[in-house]
């Protein structure tokens, strides 16, 4: 543990010197030589440092606190690697907590920057966790993107979001507003909820675990309380309360997919995002086959095997390309 804290300080020292390759650091060199995974992590640190270089002028940095954060989330990552499938919040320990290493903490930055931007993505095949500068935590599902900004002049916490995420928003008098590309806005003060807002989906779905949120689209508003679920139709620009099992909406946090009469086309879209594959589906099958039940995320072939046993389909896997046809 102490060694990791020390390495963390050496990494920050190296990066703060603008990555001058002529500077020799025996401790850092030894750590890099120990394991290839250390080299991969270091590359990620450098990439994130470059992307956020405009905030490197912050004077206050608590290396021990920041590295504690990295150590904690990396332990979570290592635990998930021991499971059957190497999926989970792999990138979170590197990317999200390095924001803290860079000084995106609750103190200092807000006072010095009139506006601050933080961006995080979860590519297809991965999931991420990001700790925002205000202390809010967002877990991103595959194929999601979030940009956070705090504007001291306007006194607002604002997020541009697409994809799916579970938000645990820190309580604060300053409003927390999520904007989506269809003009829909979600206003929060401090709460936990799941939000599904993929750009290629016909609807936006919100499921509130605790607290209170407000969906806003033009003159149409919908106030939600704990336990409520709501859906926004992009074609009609209308929102309405909906029913269902609340926990099913965020079961992806436990690597599960609950299918409540889910069409095969929707299942395939989920699998494409989750496993970074391309599925070629026979045209007449997409909406003619529906599934009910729960699938524990394992390998893509395991899931396809389950689906083929539940319905009259066959599949063929060639690398990242999958064909699904009727038997």
From TrEMBL:
Transmembrane regions listed in the UniProt entry: 84-104
Classification via InterPro entries: FecR (IPR006860), FecR_C (IPR032508), Ferrdict_sens_TM (IPR012373)
Pfam families attached to this UniProt entry: FecR, FecR_C
Keyword Iron-sulfur tagged: no
Keyword presence, Transmembrane helix: yes
MF term (GO), any: sigma factor antagonist activity
Domain FecR protein: 122-213
Keywords: Membrane, Transmembrane, Transmembrane helix
Domain called Protein FecR C-terminal: residue spans: 256-324
Protein name: FecR family protein
Organism per entry: Parabacteroides distasonis str. 3776 D15 i
């Amino acid at each position: 543990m102490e060694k990791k804290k020390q390495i963390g300080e050496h990494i920050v020292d190296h990066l703060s010197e603008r990555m001058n390759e002529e500077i020799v650091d025996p401790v850092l060199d030894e750590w890099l030589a120990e394991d290839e995974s250390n080299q991969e992590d270091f590359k990620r640190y450098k990439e994130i440092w470059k992307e956020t270089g405009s905030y490197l002028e912050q004077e206050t940095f608590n290396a021990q606190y920041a590295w504690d954060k990295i150590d904690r989330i990396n332990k979570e990552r290592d635990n998930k690697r021991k499971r059957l499938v190497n999926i989970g919040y792999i990138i979170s320990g590197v990317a999200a907590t390095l924001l803290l290493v860079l000084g995106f903490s609750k103190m200092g930055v807000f006072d010095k920057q009139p506006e601050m931007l933080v961006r995080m993505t979860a590519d297809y095949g991965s999931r991420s966790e990001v700790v925002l500068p205000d202390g809010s935590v967002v877990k991103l599902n595959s194929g999601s993107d979030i940009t956070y900004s705090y504007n001291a002049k306007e006194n607002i916490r604002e997020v541009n979001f697409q994809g799916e995420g579970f938000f645990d928003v820190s309580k604060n008098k300053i409003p927390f507003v999520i904007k989506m590309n269809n003009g829909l806005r979600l206003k929060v003060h401090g709460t936990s909820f799941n939000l599904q807002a993929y750009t290629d989906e016909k609807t936006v779905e919100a499921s509130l675990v605790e607290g209170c949120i407000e969906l806003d689209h033009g003159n149409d508003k919908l106030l939600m309380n704990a336990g409520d679920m709501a859906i926004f139709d992009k074609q009609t620009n209308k929102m309405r309360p909906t029913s269902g099992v609340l926990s099913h909406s965020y079961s992806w946090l436990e690597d599960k997919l609950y299918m409540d009469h889910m069409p095969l086309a929707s299942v395939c879209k989920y699998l494409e995002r989750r496993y970074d594959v391309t599925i070629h589906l026979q045209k007449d099958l997409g909406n003619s086959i529906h599934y009910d039940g729960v699938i524990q995320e394992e390998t893509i072939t395991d899931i396809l095997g389950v689906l083929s046993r539940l319905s009259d389909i066959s599949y063929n896997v060639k690398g990242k390309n999958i064909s699904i046809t009727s038997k």
